[in-house]
C-alpha cells in the first residue's frame, strides 16, 4: 500500500528544501563570502521541531575577534583613557605608535601612561609582563614579503603576542630549542628547555627558558582559578589583582593571569629527568606528564593579568528573544568563567533582571533534599501508583540556572566516582558498598533518578548556563536532555571543543568563525553568524515541517483511496486476482497522474511568508508538539481514504446497475466501469491537493490541471485502436475511454462522485477556520494588515541594546584546543626565517584556518 514512489518523493522534497537553504541570500555573510550550507538532506523537517538549543559562547554568541583592552601589573590597573603623565580622561585618544617602527597600526590602546612606563624602562614589572607575553606561547611566525605573520592556536594568543609586539617586545622567530624576541630594539635569544602546553583540564601553559646570563625561569599564564592555587605565599598584589579581575569581569572581558618562577639548575635537572621518563611512558602518558607538570608549576610569583575583549555578534539578543517566544529553550555551555558567562547571558537577553538565578550550591541542595525524601519513602509506597513529580521551584516568577563544571560533576556523581575509582586502583582494592549518608548513589537506579531530577529542574528554568565545562561535559549535558526529555535538540558551535556537543545532538550546526572548520565539518548545517539560526528554524525549519506533513498526509490518503477500491471490488469478482483499474493506470498513477502536485506542495507551499513567520514565532509551536503529523493524523488520512474509496467504487457501481445509454446499449461493462472509477479518482485526488494548498503559484495551477490533462491524453492514446494493432497484448482496453466518456450519464456520475467526496472536506475546513481557528488561520486572515505593519517597522530604526547594571562578567582567555607545542618540540613545523625586507611593515594575524595548514 506504500509504494516506492513515497521514498523517492521524500528524497526529492528534502533535496529541494536543502537547496533553498543554500540559496537563501538572507543567510549569506558578505564580509567573508560565506553562504549557508545544508550538509545533509535528511533533517530539514526536524528543524521545525526543535525544543532545546545548546550553544557555545566564544565565537558562537561572540565574534571571537580578540582585542587587548586592559591589564593589571603589580597591583596597578591600566587601560582606561589616560595621558602619559597618568591623568585620567573621560575621552582620550589612542596611543600613537609612531615611536615603534614595527607596531601593528590596527592595534588600539587608550592608556598612554603604560606606554610611557614601558618605554622608560624604570618599571621592571611592566617589562617582565610584556616579556612573558612575547615568550610564553605556542604561536608560529613566518616571514612573508617583509611581514611577520603570526599563526596562533587561538585568537587570544594572537592578540596577546600582538599586544607585546606593540609595546616593544617583538616575537621574531623560534626553533626547536630557541625563541628570539626583540626587547626595545635589542634582539635576544632564549634557550627553550621545556614547553608545557595548554589543554582543557590544565587551563594553563608554561615555558621554561634559560636566559643568556644562565638563569632558568618558568613563565606561566592561565585561568585565575588555577594560577591562584599555585601562587607562593610570598607573592604580592594578590588581593588587588583579584579586585581588578572582578572589575574586568564586570566589563565582559576575558582574563588571564601571568606568573613566573626562578628555578635553580639542580632543581631543573632533577625535574627534567622525571619529565623525560614521563615522555617515554608507555601507558597513561598524558596523566604522567600532568603529574610532572604539577611538580614544577608551584610557588609561582604573580605578575599581573590581561583582559581581552570579545564582542557579541550582531543580532544575537534579538535572535535569542525570538527563539524564546517560540518556546525554544536555550542552554549556553561554555568553558568561560562563571561571571563572564553570566554577564554574556544578560547582554544577549538570555538572562533578565526579573529572573531568579540559582547556582550550583542551590541546585545540589534541592536535588539532595529530593533524593533524601525518595530514600525515606517506604518500599510499599514506591510500588504503588506513581505520583507526578513536584516542581522544584514553587515561587512565582522566572528562574535560571548558572552552574559550573565542578558542580555539574558533583551533582551527577561523576567526579566522586572517578576519584574513588582511581584511588582504589592505586591501592589495588575494590570499591566498598556505598553508604547512603555519604552523598554517593546507592546504585545505578539512584544515579539515574538524580540525573532525571537535574534535567527536570533545568527544564523548569527559562535559561541554563553551564560554565567551566569541558567538551566531554558538553556532550553529556546534551545526551541527558535527549535521553530523558525525548525532545529534538540542536547544538551550535564554532570550534573543535564543540564537536562532541554537535555530534551528540539530533541536529548539529557549525559556525565558520575564527577557530577553523572542525565544527563545520562535523555539523549538519553551517553558516557564518548566530543570527541566521533564527531564519533557519523559524522559516526554513517550519516550512519544511509543514510541507513534509502535508505531503505525507496527502500521500497516504491518495494511496489508500486508490488501493482500497480493489478491496471493495473483490466482493464482486469472486475474490479473484482481477483488478479494478486498467494495468497501465496502476503503473502510471503515482508516476504521472498524481505525483507533480504533491511534489510542488512539498517544495513550495507556505502558510505565511518569511517575514510574518519571523514576526510571529508562536507559529513554530505546532512543530514542537507534533500536531501536524502523528498517529491521529495518520488514521484520519486512513479513514478519509476509506471514505473516498467507498464513494469512488459504490456510486459508479450503483450508476451502472440497470443503465441504458443514449444509443440503446448498456454501458455497464467492466472496462467502462474501470474508466469511470479511474477518472473519478484522478479528479478527487488532484482537487483534494488543491484544497490543501496554501500558497498558489502558476506552477501549482499548471501541475494540477496538467496532471488531469496528462491522464486523459495518455488514457485516450492507450485506449486507441492504433496502439492496440501494434501491441495487442499489453493494450486491451481498445475504445473503452471514447465509448464511456461520450455518455453524459457517466459524466454526471463522475461529477456526483467527485462532489460527494470533496463536500465533507470543504465543510470541515470551513468549520475549523471559522469556529476553531488555529494561530496560523488567524494570522492568515489578517495577513494584509501584518504586511503593512512590517513595512512600517522596516522604516523605523531599531533601538540600541542597553546592558543591565547588576550583572558580572569574566573569563579566561584560552582556546579549548591544544596549542602547537608538539609541533614546536618535534621541530617539524619550524621554518627558517627569511631576511626581512621591510621592518617597518606591521605584523598581521592570520585566521585559524590558515594556521591549520601548518
Short description:
Mean pLDDT is 83; it is low at 416-422, 430-438, 798-810 and 831-854. With 854 residues, this protein is α/β, with parallel strands linked by helices. The chain has 33 helices and 22 strands.
Describe the protein's architecture and organization.
The chain has 33 helices and 22 strands. A hairpin with a 2-residue loop joins strand 5 (140-144) and strand 6 (147-151). Helices cover 48% and strands 15% of the residues. Helix 1 (4-22) runs parallel beside helix 21, helix 19 (532-570) packs parallel to helix 24 and helix 19 packs antiparallel against helix 25 (670-692). Residues 416-422, 430-438, 798-810 and 831-854 have low confidence and may be disordered. The strands form three sheets. Strands 3, 4, 7, 8, 9, 10, 11, 12, 13 and 21 form a ten-stranded mixed β-sheet that branches. It is of the alpha/beta class. It starts with a helix and ends with a helix.
